[in-house]
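Table S2 (continued). Query chain:
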Amino acid sequence: MVPTLSPSAPYRRQIRANPRFRSVAASLFDVSSFEIDLGEQTTNSPPVDIETTNPGHRAATLRTMPAPEFVIALRRHVGHAPLWLPAVTAVVLRDDDVLLIRRSDTLAWTPITGILDPGEQPAVGAVREVAEETGVLVEVESLAWVRASGLSVHVNGDEAYYLDHLFRCRYVSGTGYVADDECVDVAWFPVADMPQMDSVYLDRITYAVERHPQTRFDPS
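Corresponding output:
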């Protein structure tokens, strides 16, 4: 999964001061007076649980997540400076259902995403990410979309651009469960009745489901 925490200098961040994070959090609970102080937390530290206790909303926990080891090593040299990272998105389909996870860092529903390991083939990385996060075995059917993202600014100030490889994947086996700390829920949803999610992920799912005969390459 694309992480929102990395091992750069110690930091303090408040949800109210971070519009990108606040926009997701606000859809789940009242953040009008909700502040988070992560102090000296880094990706080498144990995950930090942030309990949300606002009345009238479903209880949930935001968790910071570790970055891949090679990103940790890079951040030691470049700090918050933008990194160019290869990534994958796996849209896993089983008949008319799609497999989604609820991220532990934002509590948002998304398809499975992740950063490729150095030298890893993109299709192999997509299969690995699905297995690591959900316990589901899949086969890649096609490369649907290759797209460079805009600048992403993570909760702790780290910046990155992602070259995303969107794969349409076919379900093979497995029931689907929370297999690591990167998500708090795993579920199948009808494609026609998915939970609310960021339009970026909705567009990716829609394009993969449409099963276009050719891979989409967005212009720079």
